Amino acid sequence: MGEKVVADRFVLPDRQRHRDKLRQCLDVLARLLAEKRFDRPRNLVGLEIELNLAGPDGMPSMVNAEVLKRIASGDFQTELGRFNLEVNIVPHRLSGRVLDQLAEELRTGLSYADRKAMEVDSGIVMIGILPTLRDSHLVSANLSEADRYAMLNEQVLAARGEHFTIEIEGVERLNCTAASIAPEAACTSVQLHLQVTPRRFAAVWNAAQAVAAAQIAVGANSPFLFGRELWRESRPPLFVQSTDTRPPELKAQGVRPRTWFGERWIDSAYDLFEENLRYFPPLLPLSDDEDPVRVLAEGGVPELYELTLHNGTIYRWNRPVYAVADGVPHLRVENRVLPAGPTITDVMANTAFYYGVVRALAEEPRPVWTRMPFGVAADNFDTACRHGIDAWLRWPKPGRAGGLTRMPAVRLVQEELLPLAAAGLDAWGVEPADRDRYLGVVEERCRRRVNGASWQVDTYHRALEQGLDRDKALAATTRRYCELMRTGEPVHTWPPGIAD
Predict the structure, then answer these.
(1) How far apart are alpha carbons 225 and 335 in whole angstroms?
(2) Where are any strands of DSSP class E within 21-75?
(3) Pick from 412, 433, 410, 408: which is nearest to 422 by CA?
(4) What is the C-alpha to C-alpha distance for residues 335 and 358, in angstroms, rounded to an integer?
(5) Could you please report the per-residue DSSP string of 147-187?
(6) Closest Cα to residue 453, out of 492, 499, 411?
(7) Phi and psi dihedrals of 454, rounded to 5?
(8) How many C-beta atoms surround the C-beta of residue 216 within 10 A?
(9) Is CATH 3.90.226.10 the classification given to domain 41-261+317-493?
(10) pLDDT of residue 383
(11) Confidence of residue 156 (pLDDT cuts 50, 70, 90)
(12) Closest CA to 117 of 191, 67, 78, 46
């Protein structure tokens, strides 16, 4: 989520001095971009998955410290809540049988982690929001044991000056308050990284923004929160509200939320970092001793610690990333749109779709972002979150006539985006067998109109019809989800209902 970039050894300095240092970092970034000092992309992709822990009863397990101790692997880390973990897969070259290789590494790692979790009467669950979570679980006492989480919680609350209000109007209505950032821990996602050159960054970011709604439509997996059926992908509205440092008066004045879709297409990665400084005061004004101007003047490459820390506390759905590896700077687009799960096969299908379609859209001679207002992309994203696989989206008409048309998301994906994704994967050099297998999963979801969210909702309502009350139906749905998740079969093949 970005909070992990906070190092426990730093102390809070003077805020104005920190802001001056941020401006200095931004100026140095501009020089690096102008001097073309960045690493040549090696077609490297990275993958992170945030996970839940739940017991045999389907309820959240606050045991991540115990599970991590048993896993004893640097690939697994804490996340914000005690019922969260994160697994990181080392970067891979996007070519050949990479999708199957990633899938096998995930199966091995998650199977091992699941066995270790079972030693403390728990288990790994890949899902956007655990259906059995209640607001009573999401309190400051259930934040993970790390100073950085306590510091983040303290600073967000200090900036806001009052409790958070969580209000979501979906199939049902949720209205509650929270005294900490703990509700953010309910949101578990898949994060996809793609290293790009500065020259190509804007095209890739714009393409990722344009296709975000389609990603959500086919990949939604978070229909429940605090016992209520809300949006088909309830993570985005929850994340916006649980990270919102704005008191009501600033919200009324149009101050941007720290979690946002954005408001314009961009021309450079610099645009996003400059927006960060212009719109968002530092949330964690921590500094180190690096003088980035001096480092650059001496021929070195600055880490730009303050800039990357600030960027990590602004939760764009497609986030720019500046990093230094082996003494060379590089840029990545971090796609944060997708929920976790339901299975490794589903995760890899979503991964294949994203990397393929973004490559194809970024290389189109008439880019989609020149034919579609940014506001339409933002509206599409909101619509897809609300309605999932049943969403209708607006998209540019084919040909030179121009204009937009409104169509079912499944038709847009089947007729336009899947062929583009296939062409994009071919351009990356992905093996046709991998391409066809994983894009075929997305095709079948569209054909059957089934994704993780629709399966959960269908199963939950069948459980209600069998006479279970709300809480027992959600618990039964979660247990059945876990059972089918462990088979590895993609969600569109799962039988609905709590029993065969």
Answers:
(1) 23
(2) 44-54
(3) 433
(4) 11
(5) HHHHHHHHHHHHHH-S-EEEEEESSSEEEEEESSSGGGGG-
(6) 492
(7) -65, -35
(8) 34
(9) no
(10) 98
(11) confident
(12) 67
Q: Who contacts 323 (Cβ-Cβ below 8 Å, separation ≥6)?
A: 308, 329, 330, 332
Instruction: Report the C-alpha gap between 387 and 376 in whole angstroms.
Output: 16
Closest by alpha carbon to 204, among 378, 349, 357? Answer: 357
Is residue 122 within 8 Å of residue 61, measured between CB atoms? yes
**pLDDT digits 0-9 by tens, 360-389:** 999 999 999 999 999 999 999 999 999 999
In 10 A of CB 269, how many CB atoms? 25
pLDDT (tens digit per residue) in 214-242: 999 999 999 999 999 999 999 999 999 99
Q: Give dist(CA 241, CA 246) in Å, integer.
A: 10
- Token pair listed for 329: 């700077």
Mention every residue, 6+ apart, whose C-beta is less than 8 A from residue 415.
Answer: none
Q: Which of 54, 232, 35, 48 is nearest to 133 (CA)?
A: 54
Q: Report the predicted TM-score, pTM, of the whole model to 2 decimal places.
A: 0.95
Q: How is the chain split into domains, by residue range?
A: 41-261+317-493
Crossing angle (nearest 10°) for helices 198-219 and 344-362 = 140
Cα 72 versus chain centre, distance = 25
What length is written for the chain?
A: 500
List, in sequence order, every residue forming a beta bridge with 189; answer none if it has no partner. Answer: 339
Arithmetic mean of pLDDT over the chain: 93
